[in-house]
């Protein structure tokens, strides 16, 4: 997807520790980048529809903000099995790109202030660095304030 759309990107590989408490913080530490630049992909059910939410790994999702971002009322994190089935990726390696099914995507507004962000490359131990504008273009995503802290 990235190469066929001629999107500039850089791949970063690191050795994944299966015992890591947080896959996202593990990536930030292993790559030596600020946690504010590494984003995690969460699968959320909002009023019964699947929505992809992308937020910095050091923050928690505000479910109410996620619901409001798409005009919804009730949001819950999707069951991990549902997330894996709908995206085609394993939890801890879910990428907002190249998912099995297309889903509405919302990226935390903090990405707008960054030159590049890191997102999962579809497996644990592989991160993709790209411009936030390219992430939004490739996912047909929007931005909103999504974090609780």
From TrEMBL:
The keyword Metal-binding does not apply. It is an enzyme of class 4 (lyase). Residues 25-138 form the YbaK/aminoacyl-tRNA synthetase-associated domain. NCBIfam families: YbaK_EbsC. Belongs to the prolyl-tRNA editing family. YbaK/EbsC subfamily. The keyword Protein biosynthesis applies. GO terms for molecular function: aminoacyl-tRNA deacylase activity; lyase activity. It comes from Labedella phragmitis. Pfam families: tRNA_edit (PF04073). Transmembrane segments: none annotated. SUPFAM superfamilies: YbaK/ProRS associated domain. Its EC number is 4.2.-.-. Keywords: Lyase, Protein biosynthesis. One of its GO terms (biological process) is translation. This is Cys-tRNA(Pro)/Cys-tRNA(Cys) deacylase.
